[in-house]
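Re: How this chain folds, sequence and tokenised backbone to follow

Filed under: protein folding, tokenised backbone structure, sequence and structure records.

Contents: The amino acid chain and a row of whole-number tokens, matched residue for residue.

Body of memo: The sequence and its backbone structure tokens, given next.
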Amino acid sequence: MSLKELRTRLKSIKSTSQITKAMKLVSTAKFGKSLHQFHQVKHFYTELQSLWTFLSSYPAIRQRMLQLEWVKPIEAPPLSIALFTNRGLCGGYNNSLTKILPSTAQGPFVFLGKRGIASIQKNYGSYIKESDLEDLSSQLLNSASHYPISPIYLSFAWENPTFSTAQDFFGKICDLKKLFPFHSLNFIYNQFYSALSQVPKQETLIPLSLSEEISTDFAPLIDSDFLHSLSVDLIQSQLYFILMNAYTSEQGARMAAMDNATRNAGEIQKRLQITYQRARQSAITNELSEIISGAEAL
């Protein structure tokens, strides 16, 4: 490799290193913000889940809970939703989801995130793009009755989620349930443990689970309207917690990937710098030898 080629490559790697370093700083800031939000959502969801479990342990309240729309089971196919990312450069985040899809996705499934398209096409051959809600429901019905299953891409901006995002998503789920009744709704996403550890997981959002323990104490006076409101709030908070898990995992994975890329670029730059200095020194030595030889010839 010539000196010019080495200089060009060094310049290219240095430029790439600056980009990955900047992206790491941005991801670190986003990760810190999302991590704080994640812990707040986790605390709220855990408390709400504890209240629901506590109330469902009373037989009288449990019977009324079983009549609620989001608890009562129906004869229908299950539905799965996978949360991919809309942006890349986040390590193996999307690939890890694709690996568990065949074993976890039950019946027809929908996936969110543009970065899931390539993985879905590689494993399933093709996918269907959703155009509107009625079209989505008809595609789900066709997918449920045919094999092999064709995954359906749903365009929904779930990244950087807020509670309003979860409410909007829940509203879309309610509208979909009217057109395509499903037995259960399962989410497939990366559960956050740390910046370096995100584990693919399947979690059932609907129907809501009840307590396995039965209390013999006197049941508190709870009306049906409160139970209905509590069930909706619990689903929305669980959905928000799932979205925050996926988003925080994405930022952690991107931060770690950019950190590795920056360090790798630095190591490559050091090796190329040594190679460049050796080649430059060799070229200078050759030029000096030619000058000395020419002087001696005179």
Observations:
- Residues 35-253 form a domain with the Pyruvate Kinase; Chain: A, domain 1 fold (CATH 3.40.1380.10).
- The first strand starts at residue 79 and ends at 83.
- The two ends are 34 Å apart (CA to CA).
